[in-house]
Specification:
Elements (H helix, E strand, L loop, with lengths): L10 E4 L6 H18 L4 E6 L5 H14 L3 E7 L2 H10 L4 E5 L8 E8 L7 H9 L16 E3 L2 H13 L8 E5 L8 H8 L3 E5 L18 H10 L3 E5 L6 E5 L4 E2 L1 H14 L7 E5 L4 H9 L3 E5 L3 H11 L4 E2 L5 E2 L9 H15 L4 H4 L7 E7 L6 H4 L1 H11 L3 E7 L5 E8 L2 H18 L3 E7 L7
Parallel strand pairs: 2-3, 2-4, 3-6, 7-8, 7-9, 12-13
Antiparallel strand pairs: 1-5, 4-5, 9-10, 10-11, 14-15, 16-18, 16-19, 17-18
Helix pairs in contact: 1-2, 1-4, 3-5, 8-11, 14-15
Length: 457
């Protein structure tokens, strides 16, 4: 049975059109009914990012939860990982985040985490969908849920962040791009608390400017800001602050691969990377893979998606895992990606090493990597129709690279990623696959991105 509302990261859409208050209320009722079925703790916490539609949807979601007999605590604007922290450390059976992450301001989303702070399993989301209709046996009187506002749980989250860097950050000058998003207050606050000097941008949200300029998906902004301000390093968050990317003092991008590489190399050298394993995805660059493997570190790859990274971290016992996009999980700090933790973990390595970020940049050279998106009429049986060309591409690239072709989970789009140890081989293999898809699938190229020194999905 396929899911109707939930995608790969909650329920998303243009607020007040696809994602309406009515839908938010039904989701709240269904999530509340699931919580009543499965937990003795009938309390939920709700946080949001800075979109103008956030309070509207949070109010509707809260009403739905109360209608099912769930008490609701509203936190207001807070990063997604902060809500996950509150959910797992407070007396809550459910955490609810109203955010569309890096999407533009008209969009919004609703996602849930359990009492452990982890995203709900696919089968739970499917079950919640089945509970969205036919709600007849509603509580009344004193059994109806209550709504209160309480940000006290955020103090514990800030204490967690402060504990990441016992060495403190005096002497570090940081350019911060908060993307006018959920980290616009807590990001600067924790850096100041740890003694860093900051140059702050993207910290004046007005409800419609979230992700409009800069942010983790537009890192060129923080790269320029870092150089112009003379900062030691720059950091950019996305709208809900579950990811972060960086700029060295020369304005060069430190994406998720490089962040994991810097962190893992440091702790491998100190003997603290036990087991000597990191988790990446099929998109993790071949140059990065060769680098960590040269240090005696095993790279475990997963499909694209943070939930797959989290699963593999749990299975392998790895201390770090993540994606090129800067969505990185440090399981000792929490079970989900956290941009503020990622920032502080990287800054701690710089502090312990006593070296500028630029000295780590040349530790490895990424392999040429390209991503091409092709729109198609249908993704049904797509692979069968071009299997011969895919087999030929694998032979052509052999041990000199990789080919990853996968359909989008939300659009009629097929993504073609080709990576090789030379630009010539990369481009020739990519062209052969794209040509076959245009001919046999009626595909049309919607975009081509050189990922060699950029961000992946």
């Amino acid at each position: 049975m396929s899911r109707k509302y939930f995608g790969t990261d909650g329920v998303r859409g243009v607020a007040n059109k696809k994602l309406t208050p009515e839908l938010a209320m039904r989701l709240g009722q269904a999530a509340g009914r699931w919580l009543v079925e499965t937990s003795q703790v009938k309390r939920a916490v709700i946080g949001e990012d800075t979109r103008q539609s956030g309070p509207m949807l949070a109010a509707a979601l809260a009403a739905g939860l109360c209608s099912a007999g769930i008490d609701v605590v509203l936190v207001g604007v807070a990063p997604t990982p902060a809500i996950a922290f509150v959910a797992r450390t407070g007396e809550f059976g459910l955490g609810c985040i109203v955010s569309a992450s890096h999407n533009p301001a008209p969009d919004n989303g609703i996602k849930f985490v359990g009492h452990d702070g982890c995203k709900l399993a696919d089968e739970v989301e499917l079950h919640i969908e089945t509970l969205m209709d036919g709600f007849e046996d509603r509580p009344t009187g004193g059994a109806v849920g209550t709504i209160t506002t309480d940000r006290s749980g955020i103090a514990g989250y800030l204490d967690l962040l402060e504990s990441v860097v016992p060495e403190r950050l005096e002497g570090l000058k940081v350019a911060v791009d908060a993307a006018h998003g959920a980290a616009y207050e807590l990001g600067p606050e924790i850096l100041r608390r740890l003694g860093a000097t900051i140059i702050l941008s993207g910290a004046e949200p007005d409800g419609v400017n979230i992700n409009a300029v800069g942010g983790a998906t537009k890192p060129e902004y923080v790269q320029k800001l870092t150089v112009e301000s003379g900062a030691s390093i720059g950091v950019a968050f996305d709208g809900d602050a579950d990811r972060a990317v960086f700029s060295d003092e020369k304005g060069r991008l430190i994406n998720g691969d490089r962040t994991i590489g810097i962190w893992a190399a440091h702790y491998q050298k100190s003997g603290e990377l036990v087991p000597p394993t990191v988790v990446g995805t099929v998109m993790s660059n071949g140059g990065f893979a060769a680098y960590v493997e040269s240090l005696g570190i095993k790279l475990e790859r997963t499909p694209v998606g943070d939930k797959y990274v989290a699963q593999k971290i749990s299975e392998s016992g790895a201390l770090i895992g993540g994606e090129q996009s800067g969505h990185i999980i440090f399981p000792r700090r929490g079970p989900t990606g956290d941009g503020l933790v990622t920032m502080l973990e990287l800054f701690r390595v710089l502090k312990r090493e006593g070296r500028p970020a630029s000295e780590f940049y040349d530790d490895y050279e990424p392999w040429p990597q390209v991503m091409i998106n092709l729109g198609v009429a249908s993704t049904d049986s797509w692979k069968e129709k071009i299997q011969a060309e895919l087999d030929a591409a694998e032979i052509a690239i052999s041990n000199h690279g990789r080919v990853v072709v996968r359909p989008s989970g939300t659009q009629p789009v097929i993504r073609v990623m080709v990576e090789a140890d030379s630009y010539e081989l990369r481009d020739s293999v990519a062209e052969s696959i794209v040509s076959a898809m245009e001919t046999k699938l009626g595909g049309e190229v919607h975009g081509r991105v050189d990922l060699t020194y950029a961000l992946g999905d």
